[in-house]
Structure formats: C-alpha cells, structure tokens
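PROTEIN DATA CARD
Card holder: WD40-like beta propeller
Chain length: 186
Origin: Nostoc cf. commune SO-36
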Amino acid sequence: MEKFTPIFWLQRPIHWSLIFGLTSLLVSCGSNDIPIGPTSLNSRYTEEQPVLSGNGRFLAFVSNRNGNQQLLMYDLERQLFISTPGINRAETIAESPSLSYTGRYIAYLTSDQGRPVVALYDRATQQSQIITPTYRGWVRKPNISPDGRYVVFETASRGQWDIEVLDRGPNIELDIPNGATVGSPP
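Structure generated from the sequence above:
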C-alpha cells in the first residue's frame, strides 16, 4: 500500500524558512542604518548624480524627496541642506549638477521650452541664468571649472556629440579659496 503524504506538510518547512529569511533581510536593512529627517542626507526616496565641491564641503545631488525631481545642495561640514531658491522651478527638471571649488557656482541641466539647456546658479546672488540659449541641438553633462570661469558640456548641434567650452569671461567673480592668489589671464 502506498503511503500518502499531504502536500501541506511538505510546504510547511519551506514556508517557515521563507518567513525567517525575509525577517532577517528586513532587520538587516532596517531604518536604523539610514538617518531620516529634514537634515538627513539620505531619505527613503531616490537620490542620484552626486557631485562634490572642490574643497569637499558641499554636495549637490538630484533627489525625488518631495514627489518631484529636484536639485539639492548639502553642507557636509554643518550637516544641513543649503537653500538654493530659483533652481527648482515648477514643471522643470534640474539634473546633472556640477560645483565650483567652494560651491558658489552650480552648473546644471534644466529645460527651456521643452529642450535641455545648461544653466548656472550663483549662490552669492541666489540667481540662475541659462548660459546656452542659442544652441540649436541638444546639450548634456555640464561641468564647471573649479574657479567658475569655464563651463564645458556636450552638444549635438552638428548631428553628433561634441564638446563645447564656454568661457564666462575674465571679469566674472571667480570662486577661489580665501587667501589664494590669482594670476592675470594670458
């Protein structure tokens, strides 16, 4: 005579091992590992595209904290967020940030009339301006020099991705560390 073993009895060890496995996974990934709060660097939302200022004090990144994509700036020394009014406008996306040496200037990608443009934010004046309004093609991946004078980016105005260097001019206020000497332009 054949012995009949109920299927339920065979599934029980698998069921308990699955419960113990998931419980240990949840405990190891608990919220104690990541600080949550208004001044916490990490949150339960997506944070990406991090960049550091040249002096290592400031961090800029793209976050989805408030239900929309926004560019945030964080002071690593004081462990708090820096206000950047004017960067995150309604119905626009700010991404691909780049910081100058002390984080005074932020070059980033945003949209203007549905096309990507490179913008520059000056934390001293709290103003943002589009610095590539005349480019016919697409632009991407802006990067600012440590002193804030040059901005490089990729453009597809010739039908392929090329590199552009934009010189903001010798008369801009440079972002240099206190006490540093600046040579005259060549």
